Amino acid sequence: MKSCSSEFDPDFEGYFDFVSTSILTSFITNSQGD
């Protein structure tokens, strides 16, 4: 179970970083557009 978690962790971290950046960019774009 721990091995699976360790294998999934990096992928999840990269996905979270991608989503966070996407949301942040969208928020900034909406802020400037308004």
Query: What helical percentage do the residues reach?
Result: over 70%
Largest beta-sheet characterization: none
Unreliable residue runs? none
What structural category do the secondary elements indicate? mainly alpha
Mean pLDDT across the residues is 78
- The total of helices stands at 1
- Calculate Rg over CA atoms: 15 Å
Distance between the termini: 48 Å
Strand content range: under 5%
Instruction: Estimate the global geometry from the Cα principal axes.
Output: rod-shaped
Order of helices and strands: H
Number of strands: 0
Concise summary:
Helix content is 94%, strand content 0%. The protein has one helix spanning 2-33.
Folded structure, characterized:
The chain is an all-alpha fold and 34 residues long. Helices cover 94% and strands 0% of the residues. The chain is built from one helix and no strands.
Map the helices and strands:
Blueprint: H1 2-33
Question: What key attributes describe this structure?
Answer:
94% helix; mainly alpha
